[in-house]
TrEMBL record:
Residues 1195-1213 have a biased composition (Basic and acidic residues). PROSITE patterns: ATPASE_E1_E2. Its EC number is 7.6.2.16. This is Polyamine-transporting ATPase 13A3. The chain crosses the membrane at residues 29-50, 230-252, 410-429, 449-469, 940-964, 970-989, 1010-1032, 1067-1087, 1099-1121. Keywords: ATP-binding, Endosome, Magnesium, Membrane, Metal-binding, Nucleotide-binding, Phosphoprotein, Translocase, Transmembrane, Transmembrane helix. GO terms for biological process: intracellular calcium ion homeostasis. ATP-driven pump involved in endocytosis-dependent polyamine transport. Uses ATP as an energy source to transfer polyamine precursor putrescine from the endosomal compartment to the cytosol. It is found in: Early endosome membrane; Late endosome membrane; Recycling endosome membrane. InterPro entries: ATPase_P-typ_cation-transptr_N (IPR004014), ATPase_P-typ_cyto_dom_N (IPR023299), ATPase_P-typ_P_site (IPR018303), ATPase_P-typ_TM_dom_sf (IPR023298), ATPase_P-typ_transduc_dom_A_sf (IPR008250), ATPase_P-type_domA (IPR059000), HAD-like_sf (IPR036412), HAD_sf (IPR023214). Belongs to the cation transport ATPase (P-type) (TC 3.A.3) family. Type V subfamily. It is a multi-pass membrane protein. It is an enzyme of class 7 (translocase).
Length: 1222
C-alpha cells in the first residue's frame, strides 16, 4: 500500500478532511479482543475514545478505492478524527444523472457533465441481464460520500448543481420533470427527501454519556471506595453523577426534540409532481429527488426541498433561513429566448447567485402568482441534508468543538496532578510494603491516592460557575445553546456589529426627496404626496418600483419599500384570482393615487361628476406592474416594467444605490454636482436611494417582457433624483459603545449599507472618535494588464492634533495574560474603511496587507454575508477573540464563526448562534462579556481551590501513611462533602461586577501570576501542615501509638482489629484540624471579587457557609463533644496544643493573605516590567503587528497615494510585492 494514497474530501469547504483507506485485519481483531478481556474492557474504552487508534489497531492500510473502513481527519485547527464503515450498494446504474440505457451502452462512470434530460421522459430500459452495479459509499454526519471512479475519490452528491447547468438548460432540459422510473433510480443515490433528526432513545444517550472518560474515572473511584468501605462519599459522588447525567440527558434530549420538531412541519407533506409536460400526480415529499418538477399550490406550502422557480412568482417568508421576517418575492429563473443572447440567462445556475429565484427548504410560501391557466412550477435542486435547512440542522447536530486556552491548560494541569499522584502512589506503595501490610490493603490504599490527588468532583466543580452565569444571563433575556462559550466571552477584545437593526432602528424614516429637472437638482422637498407631484415620473417611480404585496389585506414587504410607498399616499390594488380567470392575460398589480391627490383640473368642483366618472378619471392614472426584476444585493438595484392605463408603450422604473443607478443613466441626465450632493447626504448619515426612468420601445409586448433579460431594460435611463431616508440610532447604542471603548474592547461595523453612511453612523455612535482620521481603502482588481491596486484617500480632513506622532513609550499594550494596559491608544489615530468589493480584492491580491488593514479596520460597508464570515476569520487569524452581534438577517455564518455570536433575533435562523438575546438592542453585549469574565474568574478560582484541596489532602494522607495511620471515613466525608462541595458550589455564586473594566482576565491557567499564586499557596500549606505534623511528635506528652507494633510480622493477626486505633490518635487529629482549616483559608484567599466579580462579602451563601464551618471546627476543637469525636474519630489533645494549632493556623492565614495580596497588587506589574525589560514579543499576533506598525514611518499610507500589487518574480510564487506610488 502506498503511503501517499491520501485523499482530500470537501476540498476548500469548511468541513474539508483527509481520507485514508483501511481493510479489516482478522489477527489484529483477535489480539484487540484478547487485550480487551485482559484489561477488563479498558482497552475497548480507549479505542472507543480514540477512533484513529481503533482503526490502526484493527485494520491495515489499503488503497482508498478498496477500503472497508475510511479514517478521516479534519484539516482545521482541531484535527478531529472520524471513522466510517465503507458499504457497498447494488444500484441499477453508476451515474445518478444518466439513464440506465446510456450507461449500459457506453459504460460511463460518474461523468457528471452529461445532462439528465438526455434521457427522454420515457420508461428506462433495464439491463437485460438485470446486472446491478456495486457502488461504494460511506456515511458521515448525515452525509453520504460515493466513490467516483473518474476522479478516484469519494464525493458528496448535492443535487442538480453538480451538473453545472446553465439557466437556459434548467428551462429546456429539466422543466418536464422525471417519470417514476427515473425518480426511483435517482432515489438509490439521493435517498429519501427528509432531514431525518432521529431522537435517540434515553438508553442510547445514557450509554454514550456514561462512557465519557470523566464518568469512567468516577466509576473506578466509586468501586475503589466501596472496596475500602468508604460508602458515604461514594454514595455522594454517585448521587452527584446521577443528577449530572440526568440533567445532561434532559438537555440533550430536549435539543434533539426541538430540532426534530423544527423539521417536522415540512418533513412529510403531499405535493403535486409533474410527469411530462401536462401530466401531474400527487406524491409524498419524501419521494422527491433532484430533477423532479413540483407545482406550488396557490394557498402556499412549507417547502420540503430546495427548488428553482421556472414559472410564476411566489411571496415567501424566509425568516427560518435569513432571520428577516419581511416576506420576499421570488420570481422565475430568467429564460433567454433565441433572439436575446448573453446576460444572466446563460449563467451557470447556483442557489447562492440565483437565490431570488430559488425556494429554500423550510421557508413558508405565503402566496403564488402566475399566468392565467398556468401553474407555478419549480425544479427540485437539492433534497434532504443537502438543502439550506439541512445544512443549518447539520451545523447544530455536529458543531465544531470549542477551542479555548482554559480547557487546554486544564488538561495540562490534570496531567500535572496525575504526575504528583504517581509519585505519591509509588511512595505509599513502598511504605506499605515496608510496613508489611496485607496485599489488598496495599493495592486499595495506594490506588486511593490517585482518587485523592485527581478529584472526581473536579469537572462538576468547574461547570458550577458556567451554570450560575447561564442562569443570570437568562434573567436578562440572553439564552445560550453552548454554555461552554460563556467562559470565552470573558476574553472578547473585539466585537463586530451589524448596522441596520442592531446599532440603528429597523425601519427607515422618510426625510425628504430631491428631484432632478433638466439635468439639475431641484431644491429638496419634505413630502412626495403633494398634488403638484402626483403625475411626475419621480412619484410614479416611488409608487411602482417595489416588491410590496398584500397579505390578508395588509401591505407587506421590505421596510424601505413600505416607507417609500406610504410617502406617496398611493393605493396598491391586487387583482383577485376570480377577476383574472376570465381573461387570457397576466395577473397584474396596480398602483393608483387616491382621489384627493388628483390635480384640480381633474377633480374640479365646478364639474358635476358622478362617482363612476370620478373613478374612471382616477383609473386613468393607474399604473400596472407588468414585470419585476427583484432587488439583488450583488447588483444593488431593482427595477419594474409598468404600463399606465390608456398608454400603449411601457415604462421601466429603476431604484437602487445612487452610484449604481447613475452609472446606468444617460450622462446628460445626471447632474454635474451629483457626487457632491450624494457625499453631503451620506456624510450626515442619511440612507440615499436613487431613481431612474426609461420609456420602452413600442415593439415590446407583455409576453416578450416576461422573458427579456434585465440588462436589456436597465440601460440608457433618465436620472430622476434622490430619496433621502433617515436611519436613527437606537438610544442605547452610544452608551454601550462608550462602555466597550473604555474597557479597551474594539468595535467594528460590518454592514451592507453605503460606505459614507456607515462612516457617519460610526462617528455618531462613537465607534470613531471626532478627532480620529478615517482612511478609505478603495481596492481595484487587475484590469487591462494592470496590477491590482489600492487607492487611499481620507473620508474627511484630519484635525491638526492628529499630525503629532505618538511615541511608543507613551503607549501601553494589553498582554494576553490579562495585564493592565491600553492597547487602544495605538489605534486611536486612524481607522480604515472599505467596501465589500475592496475587501474581496484585498483578500485575493493583498494578503500581506490584509492583517494590517483589519488591525485598524473599523467600517466594512456593502459586505455580503460570506464576506462577513471571512472578516471574522481574518480577525481571529490575528488572535483576536471576536464577538459578532447581528439581527440574524444575513449574519448567520458570521454568528456561527465568531467566538461568541449574539443574535438579536429569536427566529429560527438564529438557532445556530451560540447566544440569542430577547432584548432588541446591543445592551446584551456588555452584559454577556461581564458574565463571561465573572464565569472565567470563577473557573480559575475553583480550579485553583480544587488543586490546593487535592495537594493538601494528598499530603495529609502521605504524612499519616508514614506513621501507619490514615484519615477516617467520616473525616474524609466531612472534608469532601461538608467543606469542599459546599465551598465549591457557594464560592461560584459571586455575580459579575457592575461595569466593564479595561483589564482583561487571563485566558489560561498557565500564566505567570496564576501559577505563582498556586505554587506559593501549595508551599505555604505544605509547610505549615508539615510543621504541625513534626511539632506534635516532639512534645513531651506525645507517645507513639500502639498500632506501630502491628507492622511486626507476629502481630499481623491483629491488623484488622487495630484499624480504628490506627486512625484515632493525636497526629491524625492534628492533621485533620490543620488541613480542614487550610481548605477554608485557601477558599477565602482564592475567592476574588473586583474587578471582574462582586466582592466575596456580598456572596452571602459563601460567607455564611465559611463562617458556619469555621465556627463548627473551633467548637469541636475547644469544646469536645464525645459523640462528635467518636463520629469523626478524633481524640482530645491538650489545651496547650490546641492553642498552638490556632497560632500555626493564624500564621498560615496571614502568610497566605499577604502573598496572594502581593501577587494581586504587584504580580501583573512585575511581569509587565520583566517582559518590557527583556523586550519580549507578545504572543498575540495583533499586538505584535501593532508594535511593528507603530514604528513604521510609511504606515498608515499617505492620502491620495496608491499601493500596487506586483507578482513576485518566480512564476510558482503567488505572493505579491507591495509598492507605494504617490
Amino acid at each position: 500500500m502506498e503511503k501517499e494514497d491520501l485523499k482530500i474530501v470537501n476540498r476548500g469547504l469548511e468541513d474539508e478532511m483527509e481520507l485514508s483507506g483501511y481493510r479489516l485485519c482478522r489477527w489484529k481483531l483477535v489480539l484487540v479482543g484478547l487485550g480487551g478481556l485482559c484489561t477488563g474492557g479498558f482497552l475497548f474504552l480507549l479505542l472507543y475514545w480514540m477512533p484513529e487508534w481503533c482503526v490502526k489497531a484493527t485494520c491495515t492500510r489499503s488503497a482508498v478505492r478498496d477500503a472497508d473502513v475510511a479514517l478521516l481527519q479534519s484539516t482545521d485547527e482541531f484535527k478531529r478524527w472520524f471513522r466510517a464503515k465503507v458499504r457497498i450498494m447494488l444500484a441499477p446504474g453508476k451515474d445518478p444523472y444518466d439513464n440506465l440505457a446510456s450507461q449500459t451502452v457506453s459504460h460511463r462512470a460518474n461523468d457528471h457533465a452529461h445532462n439528465p434530460s438526455d434521457s427522454a421522459p420515457g420508461k428506462i430500459t433495464r439491463n437485460p441481464e438485470d446486472q446491478h452495479v456495486p457502488k461504494r459509499y460511506f456515511t458521515l454526519h448525515s452525509t453520504k460520500y460515493f466513490w467516483n471512479e473518474s476522479i478516484q475519490n469519494f464525493e458528496v452528491l448535492k443535487g442538480l448543481e453538480d451538473l453545472s447547468m446553465t439557466c437556459s438548460s434548467v428551462h429546456s432540459k429539466h422543466s418536464a420533470g422525471l417519470n417514476k422510473n427515473q425518480q426511483e433510480y435517482r432515489r438509490f443515490f439521493f435517498g429519501l427527501n427528509e432531514i431525518d433528526v432521529k431522537v435517540p432513545s434515553l438508553f442510547k444517550l445514557l450509554i454514550k454519556e456514561v462512557l465519557n472518560p470523566f464518568y469512567i474515572f468516577q466509576l473506578f473511584s466509586v468501586i475503589l471506595w466501596c472496596t475500602d468501605e468508604y460508602y458515604y462519599y461514594a454514595m455522594a459522588i454517585v448521587i452527584m453523577s446521577v443528577i449530572s447525567i440526568a440533567t445532561s440527558l434532559y438537555t440533550i434530549k430536549k435539543q434533539y426534540v426541538m430540532l426534530h420538531d423544527m423539521v417536522a412541519a415540512h418533513s412529510t407533506v403531499r405535493v403535486t409532481v409533474c410527469r411530462g409536460e401536462n401530466e401531474t400526480e400527487e406524491a409524498l415529499s419524501t419521494d422527491l429527488v433532484p430533477g423532479d418538477v413540483i407545482v406550488i399550490p396557490s394557498n402556499g406550502i412549507i417547502m420540503p426541498c430546495d427548488a428553482v422557480l421556472i414559472c410564476g412568482t411566489c411571496i415567501v417568508n424566509e425568516s427560518m433561513l435569513t432571520g428577516e421576517s419581511v416576506p420576499v418575492t421570488k420570481t422565475d429563473l430568467p429564460n433567454p429566448q433565441q433572439d436575446i443572447k448573453g446576460g444572466d440567462g446563460d449563467a451557470i445556475y447556483s442557489t447562492e447567485e440565483h437565490k431570488r429565484h430559488t425556494l429554500f427548504c423550510g421557508t413558508n410560501i405565503i402566496q403564488t402568482r402566475y399566468y392565467t391557466g398556468e401553474m407555478v412550477k419549480a425544479v427540485v435542486v437539492r433534497t434532504g441534508f443537502s438543502t439550506a435547512k439541512g445544512q443549518l440542522i447539520r451545523s447544530i447536530l455536529y458543531p465544531k468543538p470549542t477551542d479555548f486556552k482554559l480547557y487546554r491548560d486544564a488538561y495540562l494541569f490534570l496531567l500535572c496532578l496525575v504526575a504528583v499522584a504517581s509519585i505519591v502512589f509509588v511512595y505509599s506503595l513502598v511504605m506499605k510494603i515496608i510496613n508489611q501490610e496485607p496485599v489488598k490493603e496495599i493495592i486499595v490504599k495506594s490506588l486511593d491516592i490517585i482518587t485523592i490527588t485527581v478529584p472526581p468532583a473536579l469537572p462538576a466543580a468547574m461547570t458550577a460557575g458556567i451554570v450560575y452565569a447561564q442562569r443570570r444571563l437568562r434573567k436578562v433575556g440572553i439564552f445560550s445553546i453552548s454554555p461552554q462559550r460563556i467562559n470565552i466571552c470573558g476574553q472578547l477584545n473585539l466585537v463586530c456589529f451589524d448596522k441596520t437593526g442592531t446599532l440603528t432602528e429597523d425601519g427607515l424614516d422618510m426625510w425628504g426627496i430631491q428631484r432632478v429637472e433638466d439635468g439639475r437638482f431641484h431644491h429638496s422637498e419634505e413630502k412626495a404626496d403633494d398634488k403638484s407631484l402626483v403625475t411626475t415620473k419621480f412619484v410614479s417611480c416611488m409608487a411602482a418600483c417595489h416588491s410590496l404585496t398584500k397579505i390578508e389585506g395588509q401591505l407587506s414587504g421590505d421596510p424601505l419599500d413600505l416607507k417609500m410607498f406610504e410617502a406617496t399616499g398611493w393605493i396598491l390594488v391586487e387583482a383577485t384570482e376570480e377577476e383574472t380567470a376570465h381573461h387570457d392575460r397576466i395577473e397584474l398589480t396596480y398602483v393608483k393615487p387616491p382621489n384627493q391627490l388628483l390635480p384640480p383640473s381633474v377633480t374640479s368642483p365646478e364639474q358635476d361628476m358622478e362617482l363612476s366618472e370620478l373613478y374612471e378619471l382616477s383609473a386613468s392614472y393607474m399604473i400596472g406592474i407588468v414585470r419585476q426584476f427583484s432587488f439583488s444585493s450583488a447588483l444593488q438595484r431593482m427595477s419594474v416594467v409598468v404600463r399606465q392605463i390608456g398608454e400603449r408603450r411601457m415604462d421601466a422604473y429603476l431604484k437602487g444605490a445612487p452610484e449604481v443607478v447613475a452609472s446606468l443613466c444617460k450622462k446628460e441626465t445626471v447632474p454635474e454636482d451629483f457626487a457632491e450632493v450624494l457625499e453631503d447626504y451620506t456624510k450626515q448619515g442619511f440612507r440615499v436611494i436613487a431613481l431612474a426612468h426609461r420609456r420602452l420601445e413600442s415593439k415590446l409586448t407583455f409576453h416578450k417582457v416576461q422573458s427579456i433579460n434585465r440588462d436589456q431594460i436597465e440601460k440608457n435611463m433618465d436620472f430622476l433624483g434622490l430619496i433621502i431616508m433617515q436611519n436613527k440610532l437606537k438610544t442605547e447604542t452610544p452608551g454601550v459603545l462608550e462602555d466597550l471603548r473604555r474597557a479597551n474592547i474594539r468595535t467594528v461595523m460590518v454592514t451592507g449599507d453605503n460606505m459614507l453612511t456607515a462612516i457617519s453612523v460610526a462617528r455618531d455612535c462613537g465607534m470613531i472618535q471626532p478627532q480620529d482620521r478615517v482612511i478609505i481603502a478603495d481596492a481595484l482588481p487587475p484590469k487591462d494588464g494592470q496590477a491590482a491596486k489600492i487607492d487611499w484617500h481620507y473620508a474627511d480632513q484630519p484635525s491638526k492634533q492628529l499630525n503629532k506622532p505618538t511615541k511608543l513609550e507613551e503607549m501601553e499594550i494589553i498582554m494576553e495574560d490579562g495585564h493592565s494596559v491600553d492597547e487602544m491608544r495605538i489605534q486611536e489615530q486612524y481607522h480604515f474603511a472599505m467596501s465589500g468589493k475592496s475587501f474581496a480584492v484585498i483578500i485575493e491580491h493583498f494578503q500581506d496587507l490584509l492583517q494590517k488593514l483589519v488591525l485598524h479596520g473599523t467600517v466594512f460597508a456593502r459586505m455580503a454575508p460570506d464576506q462577513k464570515t471571512q472578516l471574522v476569520e481574518t480577525l481571529e487569524s490575528v488572535d483576536y477573540f471576536v464577538g459578532m452581534c447581528g439581527d440574524g438577517a444575513n449574519d448567520c455564518g458570521a454568528l456561527k464563526r465568531a467566538h461568541a455570536g449574539i443574535s438579536l433575533s429569536e427566529l429560527e435562523a438564529s438557532v445556530a448562534s451560540p447566544f440569542t438575546s430577547t432584548t432588541p438592542n446591543i445592551t446584551c453585549v456588555p452584559n454577556l462579556i461581564r458574565e463571561g469574565r465573572a464565569a472565567l474568574i470563577t473557573s480559575f478560582c475553583v480550579f485553583k481551590f480544587m488543586a490546593l484541596y487535592s495537594i493538601i489532602q494528598c499530603l495529609s494522607v502521605a504524612l499519616l501513611y508514614s506513621i501507619g495511620s490514615n484519615l477516617g471515613d467520616f473525616q474524609f466525608l466531612f472534608i469532601d462533602i461538608a467543606i469542599i462541595l459546599v465551598i465549591v458550589f457557594t464560592m461560584s455564586l459571586n455575580s459579575a461586577w457592575k461595569e466593564l473594566v479595561a483589564q482583561r482576565p487571563p485566558s489560561g491557567l498557565v500564566s505567570g501570576p496564576l501559577l505563582f499564586s498556586v505554587l506559593t499557596q501549595i508551599i505555604i500549606c505544605l509547610g505549615f501542615q508539615i510543621m504541625a505534623f513534626l511539632l506534635i511528635q516532639k512534645l513531651d506528652w506525645y507517645s507513639k501509638p500502639d498500632f506501630y507494633n502491628c507492622f511486626v510480622p507476629h502481630h499481623m493477626d491483629d491488623f484488622t482489629n487495630s484499624t480504628k486505633e490506627r486512625i484515632k490518635n493525636d497526629v491524625n487529629t492534628t492533621v485533620f484540624f490543620v488541613s480542614s482549616f487550610q481548605y477554608l483559608i485557601v477558599a477565602i484567599v482564592f475567592s476574588k471579587g473586583k474587578p471582574f466579580r462582586q466582592p466575596s462579602y456580598k456572596n452571602w451563601p459563601f460567607v455564611l457557609s465559611a463562617l458556619i464551618l469555621i465556627g463548627f471546627l473551633f467548637f469541636i476543637m475547644f469544646f469536645p463533644v464525645a459523640e462528635i469525636d467518636d463520629f469523626l474519630e478524633l481524640v482530645c489533645v491538650p489545651l496547650s496544643w490546641r492553642v498552638s494549632m490556632v497560632l500555626i493556623l493564624l500564621g498560615n492565614t496571614g502568610m497566605s493573605v499577604f502573598i496572594e495580596g502581593g501577587i494581586d497588587q504587584f504580580g501583573t506589574k512585575c511581569l509587565t516590567w520583566l517582559c518590557c525589560r527583556q523586550k519580549k514579543v507578545p504572543k498575540a499576533r495583533y499586538m505584535h503587528l501593532a508594535q511593528e506598525l507603530s514604528v513604521d514611518p510609511d504606515w498608515p499610507p499617505k492620502p491620495k497615494s496608491t499601493t500596487e500589487a506586483k507578482p513576485a518574480p518566480h512564476p510558482d510564487d503567488y505572493s505579491y510585492q507591495i509598492e507605494a506610488i504617490s
